[in-house]
From TrEMBL:
<dbReference type="GO" id="GO:0051087">
    <property type="term" value="F:protein-folding chaperone binding"/>
</dbReference>
<dbReference type="GO" id="GO:0044183">
    <property type="term" value="F:protein folding chaperone"/>
</dbReference>
<comment type="function">
    <text>Eukaryotic CPN10 homolog which is essential for mitochondrial protein biogenesis, together with CPN60. Binds to CPN60 in the presence of Mg-ATP and suppresses the ATPase activity of the latter.</text>
</comment>
<protein>
    <submittedName>
        <fullName>Chaperonin Cpn10</fullName>
    </submittedName>
</protein>
<dbReference type="GO" id="GO:0005759">
    <property type="term" value="C:mitochondrial matrix"/>
</dbReference>
<dbReference type="GO" id="GO:0051082">
    <property type="term" value="F:unfolded protein binding"/>
</dbReference>
<dbReference type="InterPro" id="IPR037124">
    <property type="entry name" value="Chaperonin_GroES_sf"/>
</dbReference>
<dbReference type="GO" id="GO:0005524">
    <property type="term" value="F:ATP binding"/>
</dbReference>
<dbReference type="InterPro" id="IPR020818">
    <property type="entry name" value="Chaperonin_GroES"/>
</dbReference>
<dbReference type="InterPro" id="IPR011032">
    <property type="entry name" value="GroES-like_sf"/>
</dbReference>
<dbReference type="GO" id="GO:0046872">
    <property type="term" value="F:metal ion binding"/>
</dbReference>
<dbReference type="Pfam" id="PF00166">
    <property type="entry name" value="Cpn10"/>
</dbReference>
<keyword id="KW-0143">Chaperone</keyword>
<comment type="similarity">
    <text>Belongs to the GroES chaperonin family.</text>
</comment>
């Protein structure tokens, strides 16, 4: 369940430590030939997302800040679980720890 927010734009959210704010890709509801897909096939979230914002990084045991491995604009592969949902208007975003992101997609 996504938490409803009181701010008007997602740009107001700045992740802390090693958190990464992402927006999942939406499943296509229509094929290239114009056939509409049933909602049961498009209800599960896609594992890909775009990074919106990142935190400065988390400190290691020595106190040195380790920066996040991704940057805004990157396409990433997400696990099927985890993350915290944030809903702004009709759009839904998710906060993940940097270590929870599975891979960066380079195309």
């Amino acid at each position: 369940m996504a938490s409803q927010t009181t701010f008007k734009t997602i740009k107001a959210v700045i992740p802390l430590l090693d958190r990464v704010l992402v927006q999942r890709f939406k499943a296509e509801t229509k094929t290239a030939t114009g056939i509409f897909l049933p909602s049961s096939t498009t209800s599960s979230p896609l594992p890909e997302a775009t990074v919106i914002a990142v935190g400065p990084g988390a400190p290691n045991k020595d106190g040195k800040v380790i920066p996040t491995a991704v940057k805004p604009g990157d396409r990433v592969l997400l696990p099927g679980w985890g993350g915290n949902s944030i809903k702004v208007g009709e759009d839904e975003y998710h906060l993940f720890k940097d270590a929870e992101i599975l891979a960066k997609i380079q195309e």
